[in-house]
Specification:
This protein is mostly helical. It has a single domain, classed as Amino acid/polyamine transporter I (Up-down Bundle), CATH 1.20.1740.10. Helix content is 77%, strand content 0%. It has 17 helices and no strands.
Length: 416
């Protein structure tokens, strides 16, 4: 059971944004903007409760992933594979991780780059074609991934998160919000035909690859003791809560424009045009700036996470040169594949929504692996999950699995 000291509070006045900001930078991407704007336009404030659940679930799972890494000194993939003594199980887990990260993140990267290009176009770069904007974004991301140092990449991502905060939360100042209706959205309910969107909201927030990214980024940042874990918990709580507020702000923007007829320009352009027609050019610029920050931050974190995981799985614990080489090549491959999809104008919006829902279905499997590792006293000793942590983790897994099962049954015509 985790000791009380491990959960002791750390003064917020001493807080500085840390590795958990990478989690926020990762999950506030074009997928989040699309899913949240679509939720607001289609269902008003009715699905805000899903974001509250997703934010709390993210904090619970990310804290576990960070604790495993801090105490063991291993990445999450390393810890999971080491705990799997059976070779067949180990290969199965490795294949699942590879499929969900290496393949999935390459697909997400197309949406990240396309979303950044869409934001640049809204800011006035419309004289350039979407393909050229996507190519320029991809080249910049590739350069940063290849030559960037982890320390200043982290600072860049923190800056992008803070810029997004000013854009999306600050954007509420230029629109008229019905706060009574907002509060009603925190009562759990599923309006007709909203299940797919609710799962997308959860899937876009509780992102499986963030578990691995966070674990890789906290190693060496916090001491493996009670005070270090408390500082990590504070970092996670504040960073992820900020991300949850950003998502809710985007839903609110969508809901505020829901009464307008769609322009037919596509969801990302459409929400910007709706905002402009209701609240003027400043609202459109605010949304575009947020979209650029969301897209580019995720365009960096998706390849970084994939590179970390593949290096952990194949690089060899005692060969840092080989691990670095695998990390760089894997991250670059994700950027290149995503840029190619974006350059050839594969429509990102439908892919993003489908991918986010698939994320919500995949999450219970990876979260179950995390719970298993976080509860192992052989690795974590006194810092292994206690009954409360296990109960909260299981609740998150069960709710996500239930939503996913209902979606599958409805798709098969077995659920009304």
């Amino acid at each position: 059971m985790v000791s009380r000291e491990a959960l002791a509070p750390v003064s917020v006045t001493r807080y500085r944004p840390g590795p958990a900001m990478l989690v926020t930078a990762a999950f506030i991407g074009p997928g989040t903007v699309t899913a949240c704007a679509s939720a607001g336009i289609g269902f008003g404030y009715a699905l805000l409760w899903a974001l509250v659940f997703a934010t709390l679930a993210t904090i619970i799972l990310q804290n576990m992933a960070a604790r495993v890494a801090i105490v063991t000194g291993q990445g999450l993939a390393e810890a999971i594979l080491e705990a799997a003594a059976n070779p067949a199980l180990r290969w199965t887990i490795a294949a699942l991780i590879f499929a969900s990260l290496a393949i999935g993140n390459s697909a997400y990267q197309a949406g990240n780059i396309s979303g950044t290009a869409a934001g640049l176009k809204l800011l006035g770069a419309g004289t350039l074609s979407p393909a050229l904007l996507a190519l320029a974004t991809g080249l910049l991301a590739a350069a940063l991934v290849v030559v960037g140092k982890p320390a200043w990449l982290e600072k860049l991502l923190i800056a992008l998160v803070l810029a997004m905060s000013l854009a999306f939360i600050g954007g509420l100042a230029v629109i008229r919000v019905d706060w009574g209706a907002v509060l009603s959205g925190f009562l759990p309910r599923l309006p007709a035909d909203s299940l797919f969107t609710a799962i997308a909201l959860i899937g876009t927030t509780v992102v499986p690859y963030n578990l691995f990214l966070h674990a890789a980024s906290v190693r060496g940042k916090f001491a493996p003791d009670a005070e270090g874990l408390a500082a990590s918990n504070l970092d996670t709580g504040l960073s992820v809560t900020l991300g949850g507020l950003l998502s809710m702000a985007i839903v609110t923007m969508g809901a505020a424009t829901a009464k307008l007829t769609a322009s037919g320009a596509g969801p990302l352009d459409d929400i910007a045009l709706r905002l402009e027609s209701l609240f003027g050019m400043p609202a459109r610029i605010v949304f575009a700036l947020g979209l650029v920050g969301a897209g580019f931050s995720s365009a960096l974190t998706a390849p970084l996470a994939t590179g970390y995981v593949l290096a952990e799985m194949t690089g060899g614990a005692n060969d840092p040169v080989r691990r670095t080489r695998i990390f760089k090549r894997t991250a670059l491959a994700v950027v290149v594949i995503g840029t190619a999809f974006a350059f050839f104008a594969v429509n990102p919006v439908e892919l993003i929504l489908i991918a986010q829902s698939a994320n919500g279905l995949l999450l219970p499997i990876l979260a179950a692996f995390l719970l298993w590792v976080a509860a192992r006293r052989q690795s974590l000793g006194a810092f292994a999950n206690g009954p409360i942590a296990n109960l909260l983790g299981c609740a998150v897994v069960l709710v996500c699995a239930g939503l996913g099962a209902r979606l599958i049954l409805r798709s098969a015509g077995l659920w009304p």
